[in-house]
Amino acid sequence: MLTRIRNANRALLPAVEVPYSKLKENITSILKREGYIADFAVEGKMPKTIKMKLKYEGKKSIIEGLRRVSTPGLRRYVGATEIPRVRGGLGWLWSPRLRES
Q1: Which of 35, 67, 77, 83 has its C-alpha lying 20 to 30 A from 91's C-alpha?
Q2: Cβ atoms within 10 A of the Cβ of 88, count?
Q3: What is the 3-state secondary structure (H, E, C) of 51-87?
Q4: Is the separation of the CB atoms in 11 and 28 below 8 Å?
Q5: For 81-97, what is each residue's pLDDT tens digit?
Q6: Does an H or E element contain 42, and which?
Q7: Residues 1, 95: Cα–Cα separation, whole Å
């Protein structure tokens, strides 16, 4: 899912579809809530897909970097208080929702 989003952002595509799972739906809802994607919808009966509308500022994607830290070969577990801060703690300033305030 992350690779599809990353590739769609690089190609400046307006939307991307990924196969459905509950985990992906929850991750997508978090991306929507935090302002990284414009909207999403679960489509189809079987097989279901998640269609995400990506956000851009001109020709620049809202999502600047996207990488998977924990991999199947090397799992990385951290507590909620140990999650690295985005942009040295200033990541919340870059949220589109907060810029409008």
Answers
A1: 77
A2: 7
A3: EEEECEECCEECCCCCCCCCECCECCCCCHHHCCCHH
A4: no
A5: 776 666 665 555 444 54
A6: strand 37-43
A7: 21
- Residue type for position 58: G
Two structure tokens written together for 34: 């935090």
What type of residue is 24? Answer: K
Q: Which two tokens stand for residue 17?
A: 């579809």
Amino acid at 67: R
As a whole number of angstroms, the distance between CA 6 and CA 2 comes to 6
Task: Return the bridge partners of 14, or none.
Answer: none
Helix, coil or strand: residue 90: coil
Specify the DSSP class assigned to residue 14.
Answer: S
